Amino acid sequence: MRYEFAKLHGAGNDFVMIEDLDDAITLTPEQVASVCERHFGVGADGVIVVKPSPREECAAYMDYYNSDGTKAEMCGNGVRCFAKFLVDRAIVDPAAGSFVADTLAGPKPIRFTLDADGKMKTATVDMGAPVLDAASVPTTLPQAETAFGKAVIEQSATAGDVTLAFTCVSMGNPHAVAFVDDPLAYPVTTVGPLFECAPEFPEKANIEFVHVEGDTIVMRVWERGCGETLACGTGSCATAVAAHLSGRAGRKVKVKLLGGTLDIEWNETDGHVYLTGPAEQSFTGTIEI
């Protein structure tokens, strides 16, 4: 089958978007992996199929696949690209300024801004409240009672000959955050896959390597089912929460990633995490799958 697609990215985290509002497309993991392959396919960190939502309050459903073909609950950069796809094609009224996206992690309210041409420029996504309870992340690492409830804060795990202390957060998908001296020099591509599949993370985990510098966090990420990516929205949210839990940062931070910078706020009033960042379209085309 031949499909029209658009290639979008959020801070360098890139996605192939396919519209399927008739709900007629079913992709296999092998097809997704083929599309995402950077030498023989389009090349992307994931595929997002835009499907109808059964929820009346939601504009559409974000059917998201990692580059290895596995489904993921949520993607913070992907949902901003999803928003841009809907707004720029008037599936969502550009004048509305907001809408609700449906995801495997549930509905996500989104506010957006427009550029001078009436296209979406930035989006702020209500990512919901972080999940800290170990069994719900999930992780088998020990947790302790904190001011925020039970949480796993800087608990040690060993994989291969590497030991790291992790703070664990779910943003609809599992994250394990390790504070290191210099993420840019850290062997992420060697250590990341060791911990992604470690027994302490029964559903695997996204592994963040971060350093806090005032109200700015420098981060690299090894994504579950993807490998290292230039950015991770849910990972940025989890990292901001972990930095606050461990006393390293306040509730508002900038997260500097290889592909750009995202603004994160863990709101004290409603307990939700808000992610703000750009999304851009790279190109469109047709692919045979």
Overview of this protein structure:
With 289 residues, the chain is mostly beta strands. The protein is built from 4 helices and 18 strands. It has helices spanning 29-36, 76-88, 188-196, 233-245; strands at residues 2-10, 13-19, 46-51, 60-66, 98-102, 108-114, 120-126, 144-146, 149-159, 162-170, 174-179, 206-213, 216-223, 227-229, 252-257, 260-266, 273-278, 280-288. The chain has an 18-stranded mixed sheet that branches. The longest helix has 13 residues, at 76-88. The protein is globular.
Helix share bin: 10-25%
Q: Work out the strand percent.
A: 35-45%
Measured on Cα atoms, how large is the radius of gyration?
Answer: 18 Å
The low-pLDDT segments are: none
Query: Can you summarize the main beta sheet?
Result: 18 strands, mixed
Q: Please report the total strand number as a whole number.
A: 18
Q: How many DSSP H or I helices?
A: 4
- The overall pLDDT average reads 97
Shape: globular
**Helix vs. strand class:** mainly beta
Spatial gap, N to C terminus: 5 Å
Give the helices and strands as they follow along the chain: EEHEEHEEEEEEEHEEEHEEEE
